[in-house]
Amino acid sequence: MKPLLAIILLLALSACGPSKRQDLAECRTEATKVYPNWKKDSMAGEMGDFTFLCMESKGYVLSKTCPTSGGWVNETMEDCYQKTWPWE
User: pLDDT tens digit string along 1-60?
Assistant: First the structure.
């Protein structure tokens, strides 16, 4: 009975964590603070790299289904990230 209770508790707690959308929004916001003029200063690549590293620190990886060409655009799109699992 105790293992079942522990599994139910873990599932409930994992549902309370931040969503991918929220994590990406935080990373994008932080990236635009670091690179406020990223559009006109041609710093889009660095801004995308910052976003990617931020998402990576939150446990995400770039999805294998995401197009490889696109650079910073892919690094700032929600669909291009997936959460890693402990066994990967």
Answer: 566 555 555 555 555 567 999 999 999 999 999 988 877 777 788 888 899 899 999 999
Give the C-alpha distances (Å, rounded to integers) separating 49 from 6, 7, 21, 39, 43.
38, 36, 18, 14, 10
> Can you give the pLDDT at residue 57?
93
The H or E element that residue 1 is part of is none
Q: Domain limits of the chain? A: 18-83
| Two tokens, residue 50 | 């910052």
Residues 50 and 29: their CA atoms lie apart, in Å, by 11
Rounded Cα gap, residues 80 and 84, in angstroms:
13
Sequential DSSP letters for 28-59: HHHHHHHSTTTTTTT-HHHHHHHHHHHHHHTT
